[in-house]
Amino acid sequence: MQFDIRQLKWLLTRDPERAPDLDAVAATGFGPLEQDEFDSLLADLGIQVSVLDEATEVLVVGRDGWARKQITEVLDGRSGQHFRIYSQEMFFAYLVSGEDPLNDEEGDIRDLWGDHAALQFLEQVGFKWPTTEVGDRGSGTIHVDLEVGYLKYCGYTVGKYGLPVHERRRLLEKSAYFGDVPGVFPASYMGEWGRPGSAMRLQKMAGTIANLCKNSKKRRNPAYRRAIEEWEADLSWLKKTFYDGRYIFSWPSTEVW
């Protein structure tokens, strides 16, 4: 796709008040515009392009010249915080229309990106929130040891003899999500949980709880009913608290899970 920079500037500056008020915008890579052209264009619109780091809230990625390691580090640093990624073309459409394409629930982000190489990379980095439906092979659940798992080590328990809801969620947040996995576990197991507060940690926690819930559902024992309800409630709380609106880079489906 070829861009006439003069025509693009005219389109973007004909109604400056329509341009969104954005802070902490960073850019990496080039295409269709060169990096200096892109920075200059945004400067003309009053948008300052900042250094790409953990303070970045909006990232615009060119078609070429971007580094996987750099993006991965920023994604990890922004885990649990609002963060949005656009191609240059998507960002231009946002500026011209004033409508954020990432908020289009009826659209498909993949269609907007087209053959942009960064999308394939980002799909590998992100993750789909798991379900607790039995027989759902696409839920992203994982095998867990019910007796010595990390969540149990943290004191997380549900059911008749479990903890009250506020204590469970305090443990999930303070100990499981933001805490360090202790050295009592094998190094390979510790590695599966990733860094505290990271996307990898959240994915492991969600997958573990979903799998506990699914395993109990398969038993079809009424005695597990309360535990199942509390696991599902805690899973919904985790999603609302740490996932929704924060992991847009993971390209979640708009369907209800």
Task: Describe the structure concisely for a colleague.
By secondary structure, the protein is mostly helical. It contains eleven helices and four strands; from the N terminus they run H-E-H-E-E-H-E-H-H-H-H-H-H-H-H.
N- to C-terminal distance: 36 Å
Return the CATH class of the largest domain.
Answer: Alpha Beta
Net shape: elongated
Summarize the main sheet.
Answer: 4 strands, parallel
**Would you identify the regions where 5 or more consecutive residues have pLDDT less than 50?**
137-147, 250-257
> Regarding quaternary structure, how should these chains be classified?
single chain
Rg to the nearest angstrom?
21 Å
Which structural class do you get from the secondary structure elements?
mainly alpha
CATH H-level homologous superfamily name of the largest domain: BRCT domain
Strand order across the biggest sheet?
A: 2-1-3-4
Report the average pLDDT across residues: 80
Q: How many structural domains in the coordinates?
A: 2
Tell how many strands the DSSP assignment holds: 4
Walkthrough of the structure:
This protein is mainly α and 257 residues long. The protein folds into two domains: 5-125, 3-Layer(aba) Sandwich (Rossmann fold); 150-250. It has eleven helices and four strands. Strands 2-1-3-4 form a four-stranded parallel beta sheet. The longest helix is centred in the C-terminal third of the chain and has 21 residues, at 199-219. The protein starts with a helix and ends in a 14-residue tail after the last helix. Residues 137-147 and 250-257 have low confidence and may be disordered.
